[in-house]
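#structure-requests
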Amino acid sequence: MGLKKYFLYDKKNSNFIPVEYNSLERIIYSACIWIIGGVVLCGLGIAIFSKSIGTPAEIALKAENEALLNQLKQTQQTIKKYDDELKQLAQNDNELYRSILGMKPISYDEREAGTGGADIYSDFDVYSEETADILKWTAENLEKMEHSIEIQKNSFEAIKRSYAANSEKFKYIPAIKPTSGTLISGFGIRFHPILKYRRMHEGLDFSANTGDAIYATGDGVVKRASRKGTFGNLVIIDHGYGYETYYAHLSAFAKGIRPGATVKRGDKIGLAGTSGRSLGPHLHYEVHKEGKAIDPINFLFADTSPAEYLKLRKIAENNTKSLD
């Protein structure tokens, strides 16, 4: 952009004389014009950028909000995980502890009582729809979990009282693992490795080396200690109260283990082996109630932590093959 021409009036000669600029003045003028123009354009750019993207503070706040939203989503997954574990505890509570002690189970409706109803979390509606939904879900499920935990605490207290009143009976209930080996296969329909088809597997298979110790899982009287068909060498213990336990494929019986012998929980009753129809050395273990085989996984609670129990249950559910 060039300099504009300016004129001065010469009174003496009665005419206009053009103002002359030297080179330095022209350079200074041009530089000022460019600087001012640049400043104006930068200001406009910043204004447009701030409006469309946000100020540095707004950008930082947006990033922080995104991080908090991601954290909320992770918290949501954690809540789902713990809720599943609470449901498993409730199932064990009803099907295992209360069943064994003859206590009335707590219904699902009773465990869920006091939750739900009107939208009491409408205060979250001021946030975006996604954030509001997550916050509502989190608040509602935390309230449900708090209620479920309180119900479970009260239930365990009642179970403890019942156990104290029935401690003599509890000594006879099969309640520990029959061997130190790892659980291999569970109760239910399993693929038979020798017969090559799926059939009912009425017990649990534990890994064991030939000669590993096998233990009575509850107090009782030995009902059988002899060879029996595909079971091979078999020990049956009558625990009273309708319970019996089977220990199959043994390589030998422990000293003194014969029909009529009295055993205590934890006593050695035999040695693991592969007698009978078996793919290899292991222990096949069954629990019977009133003459009917029931899932022994529900009776491995006296010597396992909740985490270990859940792990055993997962193995039992996921392994589709048996060893006998």
